[in-house]
Amino acid sequence: MGVDIRNKLAKRAAEEIQNGMVVNLGIGIPSLVPNHLKKGVNVIFHAENGITGMGQSPIKGEEDKNLCNAGGFPVTLNIGGSYCDSAVSFGMIRSGKIDITILGSLQVSQKGDLANWIVPGKKVPGMGGAMELAQKAKKVIVLMNHCDKHGRSKIVKECTMPLTSRECVDLIITELAVFQVTEEGLLLTEIFAQGNLEDVVNKTQCEFAISENLKEIPY
Amino acid sequence: MENPFGKIATLEKAMEFFHDGMTLMFGGFGGVGTPPGLIDGILEKGIRNLTLIGNDTGFPHIGIGKLVSQERAKKVIASHIGSNPFAGQFMHEGKLEVEFSPQGILAERIRAGGVGLPGILSDIGKDIELVAGDKQRVVLNGKEYLVEEALTAEVSIVFAKKADEYGNLIYDKSARNTNPLVAMAGTITIAEVEEIVPLGTLDAEEIITPGVFVDYIIPTKGVNWKWAWE
Fold first, then answer.
1. Would you tell me how many other CB atoms lie within 10 Å of the CB of residue B154?
2. Which residue ranges form the domains of chain B, and what is each CATH number?
3. Is A126 close to B83, i.e. CB distance below 8 A?
4. Is the CB of A50 less than 8 angstroms away from the CB of B176?
5. Which candidate from B79, B131, B171 shows the least CB-CB separation from A128?
6. Record keywords: Plastid included (chain B) (predicted)?
């Protein structure tokens, strides 16, 4: 996925974040989200390894080897931020203090099942903190390519890959469109500019409803 | 430096507690907060067939990853092995047994082991086969939970910023991570520290790990690996 598209997804995800929210970002495209927050939106970024109030990357040469995000890259601490141990950090997650988690995924089903921790026969990296985040964050947003590298839809009727968590995803943002996961299944709410509905239908494996207020995202 | 509790030790003394086939718990997250001197000591002593318990398997040349990539472990209990390709390779080759535990549940299992509880009740992954397996289930107030067993180890190793002569510890920023939990769960706990200070020097309100959990303190020579971001 090109940089422009990655930023497009991150920008759309950033619109979900409101002032004062506690947000946990996965690695990859989700890590671009802070660059797209509107001015005046104060967000408490949470990292699983025990940072609440995580700030931006430090400038080169000012990295602190003992201040890294969960992906192992140097970060900073914002004013008012704090450190805690892993049990407390996941205590925040399990007790519902995380307003939004933004993750990547391999597949998402029409019911909101998330499969993002094992590529069968290839890679078993482990779930890390993804199960707790997916199961317990108030809102779970997935940013991903609409199709895999073989052109197969990653939005599916039933996940064929091992699940991370069942019925947990609230919003799916791909380079083509935005879907809400509702009790009746998927609802297409937005299409990115230069896209068209036919393309979304063709590239989505499962059926979905189309919002009466279907919008075009201008960027 | 006085040594009124006999806890301040050399790496050589600490190495007496390590032997083949032991269970070893380590602090750290992606190598951040993992004690470098103790890891090298274990490597140099030639310890093998370790059961390692900790957040992840580090990177091949970083943290606990050194022991994994040099085939010193027979089993790991961790939440993530993705940053150390050797862990995945050895697992597929049948040379390394891997038990995955969701990250926060792993932390709580370690905490439980350290605070005298036999296990915890958890709903994380209870409908996910790879987590639930054949774990015992308990119904409490009408809801079903998995019983997740507590974890302890023969030796726990942690990395701290400062220790006083009693082993009261404070950590450095995100290098705290699993260390305070791991420190509680070892039959013997060894803290490798950047600085050893006299009793009374640490602010009692700031101490994260009370020295009662720490058996030995050794001074560190610092991290001797290059970080992935460097």
1. 16
2. 11-120+151-219 (3.40.1080.10)
3. no
4. yes
5. B79
6. no
Rounded distance between C-alpha atoms, residue A116 and residue A108, angstroms: 9
pLDDT recorded at residue B1: 77
Report the chain A residue with the minimal C-alpha distance to residue B222.
A65
Q: Is B165 on the interface with A (CB under 8 A)?
A: no
Judged by a CB distance cut-off of 8 A, whether residue A124 touches chain B is yes
Asked if the A3-217 domain carries CATH number 3.40.1080.10, the reply is yes
pLDDT along chain A (219 residues), means of 10: 91 97 93 92 96 95 96 95 98 98 96 93 90 98 96 97 97 97 98 92 97 95
Distances (CA, A) of A141 to B9, B83, B180: 50, 24, 32
Instruction: Tell me the domain boundaries of chain A.
Output: 3-217
User: What is the interface pTM, i.e. ipTM, of the complex?
Assistant: 0.97
Chain A residue nearest residue B227, CA to CA: A65
Q: A163 in contact with B at a CB cutoff of 8 Å? A: yes
Interface of A with B in 39-68 (CB under 8 A): 47-51, 63-68
Q: Return the closest-CA partner of residue B216 out of B182, B193, B185.
A: B193
Tell me the per-residue pLDDT of A129-163, one tens digit each, with 9 for 90 and over.
Answer: 999 999 999 999 999 999 999 999 999 999 999 99
Q: Residues A58, A61, A65, A67: what is their CA dihedral angle, to the nearest 10 degrees?
A: -20
Mutation choice for B interface testing from A66, A122, A123 by most B CBs within 10 A: A66
Question: Could you list the active site residues of A?
Answer: 48
Query: Is B192 an 8 Å CB contact of chain A?
Result: no
